[in-house]
Amino acid sequence: MATNAESIRNVAIFAGAAPRSGALPAMATPEAARVRARSRAQLALFWKTTLLVVASLATLGVLVVAATGVIWISIQEKQPGGTRLRLAVPAILVPVGLRLVPRHVWQEQAAQAQPWMPVVKVAADELRKSPDGTFVEVRSRSEYVNIAKRGGEMVVDVDDDGDAVHFSFPIYLLGSVAHQIEAAGAER
């Protein structure tokens, strides 16, 4: 098993902060102390730089998700011991995911949807411009359904005796998905 000095040297070699060949000078000499100090300083700089890069990438990811929105899905079974599922999916994954799916997989369905794409695109544009409000609301003794626009999102709530479902997504996704479906159908 490697000693601490050997472990530090191995990490320093990996980080490019120490020479690959030759041993460190004897530990008691002033030159060895300078070499150790320089190696430690270079290793500290390497880890600080790595941490800065990771933190920057994480911040960038948070900003992208904040700018593009989140798809919220919540499903709860009301029976005792029922399942409770809550998902928050970055909305940017939908258009990116559609680009990653091979066109031949959904090209036929896209071609069938072509006649409706102008209607969907106009509806998506008008929906984005419309004020917040409820579009559909159904209440009965055992069911509640609500489809509404709130703050740039479409919100669907369904509640019945067995389940409660909540689904919301940014409205811009409708136009984005319609555009990609239209492009896939036109390639056929």
How does this model look, in words?
The chain has 188 residues and is an alpha+beta fold. The protein has 2 domains: 4-66; 69-186, no CATH class. Helices cover 52% and strands 24% of the residues. The protein contains 6 helices and 6 strands, in the order H-H-E-E-H-H-H-E-E-E-E-H. A 6-stranded antiparallel sheet has the order 2-1-6-5-4-3. A hairpin with a 6-residue loop joins strand 1 and strand 2 (84-90). Helix 3 runs parallel beside helix 6 (172-186) and helix 4 packs across helix 6. The radius of gyration is 28 Å and the shape is elongated. It starts with a helix and ends with a helix. The model has no long low-confidence stretch (mean pLDDT 83).
User: Radius of gyration, Cα only, in angstroms?
Assistant: 28 Å
What percent of the residues sit in helical stretches (DSSP H or I)? Answer: 40-55%
* E-strand count: 6
Average pLDDT: 83
Which secondary-structure class do the elements indicate? alpha+beta
Unreliable parts: none
Compute the number of structural domains.
Answer: 2
The multimeric state of the shown protein is single chain
Tell me, what's the shape? Answer: elongated
The SSE order reads: HHEEHHHEEEEH
**What is the terminal separation in angstroms?**
63 Å
The proportion of strand residues reads 15-25%
Which strand order do you get reading across the main beta sheet? 2-1-6-5-4-3
Number of helices: 6
Main beta sheet = 6 strands, antiparallel
